[in-house]
Design a protein that fits this description.
- The structure is a homotetramer of 362-residue chains.
- With 362 residues, chain A is an alpha+beta fold.
- Chain A contains ten helices and 18 strands.
- Chain A has one domain: Chorismate synthase AroC (Chorismate synthase, AroC fold, 4-Layer Sandwich).
- Chain A has a five-stranded antiparallel sheet, with helices on one face. In chain A, strands 9-8-10-16-11 form a five-stranded antiparallel sheet.
- The interface between A and B is large, with 107 and 107 residues.
- Strand 11 of chain A pairs antiparallel with strand 11 of chain B, so a sheet runs across the interface.
């Protein structure tokens, strides 16, 4: 287990789904960054379960409590620890999951790796709940980026086969990103929201779940962020993103589509854009050789459907080695993609700040 | 610049395209790993330019010279340094690239980042030539993996729109992988080779280039490799892969396709496969929660078309801020995908060994 | 600020003297290590202020609360977070310390480094209180070491000019170390305790403080711990020890005395000690080339006198640049050396576990 | 084995005493640092064997050959690799050292750790020769420091019982340091040189060796270098210094002497020194809480006598477990302290640059 994301600004994630609390410990932050509780809460809300379409924000409950590193509303430069208590944990019996592991969860490999002492209750440290600290750290890092004129925002690019309009890679609207960065169901083409919701509802009614894609854009980046070869922008961001268990693919710019292009088509020609150096296309997603080009950074992520579905599934009893059936208890999101947007944004914010510090740019 | 890939077994890449030499420094290797020159050469050959279809292997020339860390054919446990001298460097004038940067190369962002002292000759440290050390390190790591019964092999999944048959994710043929791991133009469906070559030749005749995809499979993995959340298998492998500048996308298992699935379809059901725990499908590509499941690891990579094309391109003179045209001199591969297979395999080998050492599995 | 000690088993220290809480986040622990609250408490007591000679242990109050990583009395392999709440913080005004920094405290350089947002209350993150997390982590690591037959214990080697008998470097009594590892005023020659206490009391009566030395021995070490050159035993232990602000010197074996020896005197001759390979002397303190030799590890530390003394001191008002006088408020230990023994032991335990994990020895 | 010193500017040391070459790979250097061969050679000369009092400098031979990272006399920001070929290696038989390990060398623990494939020839990677790359890296880092007005120099503080005058910790003469930083037998009190040389000659005539101490001063440091707790100045410097196998003790400022002081004596009172903030004493050696104070940094190191002595020694045959005698062949320095000054300085230069980069100060 190695839950420390980053090198110079690090996020250490701790806690288990049904333990005392979960939390974030951020080390290496500069002093003097404003820590605005409303801004943090706005981000936490986007990821929180059951908040979307909810009239009653339960503000007090899940707000991270800051333990250290902040004084009078600003970071002090010391490690910033924040905790979210686990109010609702019930002492259900989860031990059956060690015998009949849930398909596509970490139950089985983690039980083999950590042995009899593995805390499997509510998925333990592997629970999706453990992405909340990433959102929290992202909210702090957003303030660092904002001071530099950098904005990070994303949208639901697809749910199942319903696809939203992608970003215009060469001309990302800054107001749009800001709006998306506060949205709980962010789409560019507002007509798609209803179709996506229908698809999610349909999955829910079937006791099933559904996957999707998230697309993030970052604007205002200077040229020169990234420490290639090993700590290039794509390496550092992808590493942070794949620490989210539901992520199964990461691509930059044209991504996998670039594999079908010819060079003459893929190459991003330099142009004079009102006195600034820009490119006519942005198939490289704002990164060349691991270094930002000044064009918008575009990253896309594939999110798998929640493996926790309520319909009965077949699995193996790994003790008896016989087929068994499994019904996963509790309420589970039929689609985590809308909530995951803030997690993906948070990971991108964290990775960028880490690299900017490494490069002496903070 | 941070060219050290890995944590416990590290590969430091050094050198520039037109400098004295390029090289690999591998730290943290166990003692007693056989270092077989033929095996290393077989891998280096796969990446070497102009080797495919060539009757005269220039064996002596590009063979890495081992400087340290090996004695009597075995690693000693000390840092292993190997160098490849740059025989053919000509003192051409590359300074024009700082004024008229090549589209989709690192010329422009690297010049901004490193300033007037940036070594741009032949792309310097950003040259594709700098992937040779990854192949070398991969060849050493293959021996470590082989001792544990683990095999890594890949194929050209596509060139442009010509697609090879993908791996059967639940039943990867071990003989096939071994064969592919030595091939210089590896495909599963041998009929596709000719079509791919035609497409490449057609791009070449047009003074253009073309992209493609590479798919890698790893067999023989034990359950339990990976140190989540931050050092899960996907994080560590993707980070290594994106340190190759041409890579623009990385996905595991079903990858982006999983975003269109329902949970009931995507979930990999556990089964008893002749007394062993396996899964009926392998949409997660052998990794759950960042930990190997014992199923084949499947990773796919998007490789962009070589930005160096011989046909004239438009670019910007960044000094005068006026449009300019550029003709890139020298001979360049119309498609780097076949040669890149060994690089991608090498990065995967290195990442796995690094994680196995971290987990106490070596 | 970079408060993460270690590489593969890491201790992240967080909190400020007058903040909500202080704490330890330990990442990379193996699963299945017993977490015995009594053992932890026994260690915490040794460092706690006002405990020595105290009839009423305030057990409940300062016991670290474990937040994550432990289930049913064993580590789970997940990050282990523990917190100690700051019950007694009073909102005294400490801002004067930024103008008239206390001599030999971090007040001045930290104020320059972190600027106006530096949390100077009670020394903030630089307070000696922040060594409690090291003791806690040490208590957990002791259990790992105990499983391997390794014991770590230390004593007050000197207070001022009163010197205790040093360890017999070639024949450290195991029972003695165990006893010392639980002692709150550990000395080998019990006659020295009274003299040391007198010296401390005399300093206290003068409103002054006094320094001392600590000597640690580790027994039961296998041959082969340490990852030279950069991660040798001495590098890793000294780095951890110097993270304690009061430590100004670290030496191994004969330490600085070896500088006066000839080779023929200093060299530790190998002998057959009842069938085991040993050395006749142990001037190298159990480490050669950064690797343990199997002999007892002997490390000595110089601890400076507490800079917080109650007698009036001269200092500079750094705003007005004029001389000023300073009276430090509050109660301060006239000698921190007895309490620091557990901190030094804890740092050694942590460093050894980190290296053993790195070497695949856990 | 982990031979990578540092975090953001790293020195990877490679090579074995009797292999092809030894070398340094420095990653993370800024671009634009002048690489002056004369300056590098001046430093290499100080460490080189047989140079002191030698009329014929063998300049060409041991000059490191720069392989990468430098163009037209300046660093490019890419990894800088340099090699020193091992011209004089003779294929003597060293295998007897595995059976009868040399006292106080790494022979025995390294043979246990790395097994039969350990390269013991001429001590392999554990040879004192492997400190040359530290001197080389130090020479590069000196240029970085010089640009910031920082100077690093040291002297032989003692050989056996002959002691040189220590630095005046509050008023280090800058010209003196510069002179020392180029000296091959640096002392402050020139009368001591002859006495020291006599002592060394006397040891040599006895077939013995002798130890000593080195004291380093750094001037021109700004306030605020250091990333406590874990990456404070003392942690990072001591870690680098202890990677030199002969170093057995490291202390800052008053070091172990501070353990005998009272607080009122040890505390470094702030004063107005001609309009600058300074301290009246410098018992803390220019570091408080792991952060530089702007006062001279003072660090002292204990160097053990060379374990390689020509007089016959007793040891154990570890195969037969019987006593044996050993005569170490070859010529060995009776005292490595004069040559080690440049190594210690180099390690300090490297550690400071690493920390300055981490703190955004480069």
């Amino acid at each position: 287990m190695s839950s420390i994301i980053g090198k110079n600004i690090t996020l250490s994630v701790f806690g288990e789904s049904h333990g005392e609390a979960i939390g974030a410990l951020i080390d290496g932050l500069p002093a003097g960054i404003p820590v605005n509780k409303d801004n943090i809460y706005a981000q936490m809300e986007r990821r929180a379960p059951g908040r979307d379409k909810s009239a009653t924000p339960r503000k007090e409950k899940d707000m991270p409590k800051i333990i250290s590193g902040v004084l009078d509303g600003f970071t002090t430069g010391m490690p910033l620890c924040a905790m979210i208590e686990n109010g609702d944990t019930r002492s259900a019996d989860y031990s059956y999951l060690k015998d009949t592991p849930r398909p596509s969860h970490a139950d089985y490999p983690a039980s083999v790796k950590y042995g009899e002492h593995f805390d499997i209750r509510g998925s333990g440290h592997f629970s999706g709940r453990l992405t909340a600290p990433i959102v929290f750290a992202g909210a702090i890092c957003r303030e660092i980026l904002a001071k530099k004129g950098i904005t990070v925002g994303g949208h639901i690019l697809s749910i199942g086969n319903v696809e939203d309009t992608p970003f215009d890679k060469t001309d990302v609207n800054n107001d749009l990103i800001k709006e998306l960065s506060l949205s709980s169901f962010g789409v560019i083409d507002s007509d798609k929201e209803a179709q996506m919701r229908d698809l999610i509802e349909s999955a829910r009614l079937d006791g099933d779940s559904i996957g999707g894609q998230i697309e993030i854009a970052v604007t205002g980046l200077p040229v020169g962020i990234g420490e290639p070869m090993a700590r290039g922008v794509e390496s550092v961001i992808s590493s942070a993103l794949f620490s989210v268990p539901a992520v199964k693919g990461v691509e930059f710019g044209a991504g996998f589509d670039i594999a079908r292009m010819r060079g003459s088509e893929a190459n991003d020609r330099y142009i004079n854009a009102n006195g600034k150096i820009a490119t006519a296309t942005n198939n490289n997603g704002g990164v060349l050789g691991g270094i930002t080009t000044g064009m918008p950074l575009i990253v896309k992520v594939a999110v798998k459907p929640t493996p926790s579905i309520s319909k009965e599934q077949k699995t193996l009893n790994v003790k008896t080695m016989t087929e068994d059936s499994l019904v996963i208890k509790g309420r589970h999101d039929p689609c985590i993609v809308p909530r995951a947007v803030s997690v993906v944004e948070g990971a991108v914010c964290l990775a960028l700040c880490d690299l900017m510090k490494e490069g002496g740019l903070l």
